Amino acid sequence: MNFEQLYADRAQCMKTSAVREFFKLTEQPDVMSFAGGFPSADFFPMEKVTEVLRDLIAEEGKFALQYGPTEGNLELRQYLAEKMTREGSPCTAEHIIITNGSQQGMDLISKVFVNPGDVVIVEEPGYVGGLGAIYNYEADRISIPVDDDGIRVDLLAARLRKLHSEGRTPKFIYLVPNFQNPTGCTMNLARRIKMLALAREYNFLIVEDNPYGEIRFEGQAVQSMRSMDTDGRVIYLGSFSKTFSPGIRVGWMLAEPELIQKVACAKGSTDLCSNSLGQRMAYRFAASGYIELHVSSLISRYKARRDLMLSCMEKNFPADVTWTHPKGGFFIWVTLPDGMTARQLLLKSIERKVAFVDGAGFFVNGKGENTARFSFSEAAPDKIIEGIAILGEIMQAEMVAYKKEKTA
């Protein structure tokens, strides 16, 4: 059967990212992996989950195992509205829709807003799941570099002026402003304020994806763009995946009720509703106050792993290699000297049973061959020590060969 002649035009754009393809190799059981951006399964609150599930089934089983509203469980939506209001973004349950993780939120936003050829601004490098959702709807993705303080709004302003002169306006910009995936950087307040001003000037939406914001190790939280939004142009995405469990697939979108209604129409034709059991579990964990205690324990545990990986990099990596120092989240971004390729390094490290993710897959323009993402969230401390030491050996050898080649 020749399926190619039957595919819709948009299906020609759909392909698995290079990052996810490589996971098949890097996530083998005997590999010391710093590749996946996963929460540690060692930190899942198994006893509490067992207790909550038992009580949930006994008390609400007939509802928890049934279809639910497309917009999501009302109690959970009310809780999330109260949470966001406390955090500076006043809203009601009508501003909230439950999604299958924040990933579905990105797909639904793209589905509702993007026509083929529409301009969407993305970070460079950026989160592959968000980049893929936008690409699947045939957008023209224009990337703007990030540095330690987040996306370069000065470069964005210049690019917006150029687009305006060409008669083109972005539909939205997609941002992970807190402990960004993949760099771990956080967008500072001044740039968030400037971003809102640019969005008003050029009339585009801001998608503020915040899966890591509560996993902060140090410093003060930066005010969200949604909390500073005065005209309803910021769409906020949240998730329980990093603070509780990714397996329940419960995230949420906060936006103006008019937009939530349109998104609900798109979601209803996609999956009817999100996981009823998972939503009721999330509500019980959150409403009881347990989720806040759990997040507090996660912060200290993940901070210990970040500190350990940074110290091991300092000890083992060559002087010409640089990396970020994230104040939260799951990721450290490593940059090799220009001309060295992280993919070549990765292939050699796999032979030694150590894995990370080379950075090229986080770019939309063929850049990033000398970059890599390291996740400290999932690896046990002994694996971090051993794995980074092995990578240091490989890097040192590659650096010697690279310098000889340059001087030859």
Q: Give the oligomeric state.
A: single chain
Low-confidence stretches: none
Total strand count, please?
14
Summarize the biggest pleated sheet. 8 strands, mixed
Number of domains: 2
Radius of gyration from the CA trace?
22 Å
Look at the structure and give the mean pLDDT: 94
Give the ordered list of helices and strands: HEHHEHEHEEHEHEHEEHHHEEHEEEH
The number of helical runs is: 13
Helix/strand-derived category reads alpha/beta
The strands making up the biggest β-sheet line up spatially as: 2-9-8-7-6-3-4-5
CATH class of the largest domain: Alpha Beta
Strand content: 5-15%
Describe the model.
There is one protein chain. The protein has 408 residues and is α/β, with parallel strands linked by helices. The chain folds into two domains: 9-44 and 299-402, Alpha-Beta Complex (Aspartate Aminotransferase, domain 1), CATH 3.90.1150.10; 46-291, Type I PLP-dependent aspartate aminotransferase-like (Major domain) (Aspartate Aminotransferase, domain 2, 3-Layer(aba) Sandwich), CATH 3.40.640. It is 45% helix and 14% strand. It is built from 13 helices and 14 strands. The chain has helices at residues 18-26, 46-64, 74-86, 101-113, 128-136, 153-165, 189-202, 225-228, 257-271, 276-287, 290-316, 342-351, 381-407; strands at residues 32-33, 96-99, 119-124, 140-147, 150-151, 172-175, 205-209, 234-239, 251-254, 322-323, 331-335, 354-355, 357-358, 371-375. Strands 2-9-8-7-6-3-4-5 form an eight-stranded mixed β-sheet, with helices on both faces. A hairpin with a 7-residue loop joins strand 10 (322-323) and strand 11. Helix 4 crosses helix 9. The longest helix has 27 residues, at 290-316. The chain starts with 17 loop residues before the first helix and ends with a helix. The model has no long low-confidence stretch (mean pLDDT 94).
